[in-house]
Amino acid sequence: MSQRTSDKIQSGGGWHKYLLFLLGVPLGVALLGVIGAESPSRWIDTAEVFATVFGFTLAAVMISWEQRASKSAELKLKLFETLHARIREVSEAALGAGTYAISIPLSLELYALSRSNGTPPYIKQTPSEFNEKHGQVGKAVSGLLIALEEHEIVLAGGFGVFKMAFNSAMHDAHDGFKKLFPNLMKRLPLPAPSGADATVWPAASTPAEIDETRDLAYAYQRAAFDVSFFATDLSVACQNELLSDLFPERQAKARQPLDPAAKVIVADSTQLVRDLEQYFRTDTAWGRHIQQVEAGLKAQYAKSPVK
Question: What are the helix (H) ranges across the chain?
């Protein structure tokens, strides 16, 4: 049984009790009438009363149930729209930053060629623009994670693995940024120190230097694209979780990467979620960093116990 189906069954338990309660009221009234009846005709009158009250009660229950289902569907639709907008921001920012980074080595090659043949040098990429694009990724992911935390009660428990996935990918992206940005400060044009509207053009990079930048740019691109891929996985999970009432016979398909080692994040399979959680805890740089931090805190608390 999927996590979503299990949650729906559990959420209906309260309504079963409510239905029994509402139907028990007219039945109790009818039974009291029968017990107190002095003739069969009173029994018939009591039965008619029961039938009438039962009908009104059942109608009230059905109306309340339909209203609750309608409100639930409306809430899920609004939440999907909110998350969909956040997911698009993350995907567009991550793709933009990754693509920007990987375009830099080619620009360095063209720049070196222009310096060698005497044509005016030009590179459109700058360290400050790359810094801005990376910052947009972090801002978009933070907004998405906050939205997920604010609506945990609506989403199935398996959605928690997405927070681990985004934290892991952003950890790699930040690490890649810290290595690539200083390199770009040496390779790309910079504003003049005087603050005037002028540009300081660097010397042409050697092939070895360009290869170094390319390796760093690829590392950053992989992490940024992972952020975008996980956003796609979250979009699929949100569609299946939040739009299933509107499209009960349809199912959004999970991403199918060509790389068999690539991780696809899901929320509707308990075993797969557990495997993914274990992977992010133990087999990623983010997970190992969290373990080190937790171990350090435990050691610190052990040396100075709370009095």
Answer: 3-11, 13-36, 40-117, 127-150, 160-187, 207-242, 270-282, 285-303
Same domain assignment for residues 62 and 145: no
Question: Which pLDDT value is given to residue 192?
Answer: 80
Domain boundary among 70, 99, 122: 70
Distance CA 106, CA 118 (A): 18
3-state SS, residue 200: strand
Number of domains in the chain: 2
Taking the C-alpha atoms of residue 171 and residue 61, their distance in angstroms, rounded to an integer, is 51
Please name the residue that has the structure tokens 């040496």.
Answer: 186
Asked whether 54 and 26 are in contact (CB, 8 A), the reply is: yes
Domain co-membership, 45 together with 176: no
Q: Answer yes or no: is 307 within a domain.
A: no
Buried b (16+ CB within 10 A) or exposed e, 52-78: ebbeebeeebeeeeeeeeeeeeeebee
Range of the domain at 64: 3-70
Token duo for residue 124: 């459109």
Predicted TM-score (pTM) of the model is 0.76
Q: Give the phi and the psi of residue 199 in degrees, each rounded to 5.
A: -130, 135
At residue 5 the predicted structure's pLDDT band, cuts being 50, 70 and 90, is very low
Domain boundary among 22, 49, 70: 70
Question: Which of 234, 266, 246, 242 has its CA nearest to residue 80?
Answer: 242
**Which one-letter DSSP state was computed for residue 249?**
T
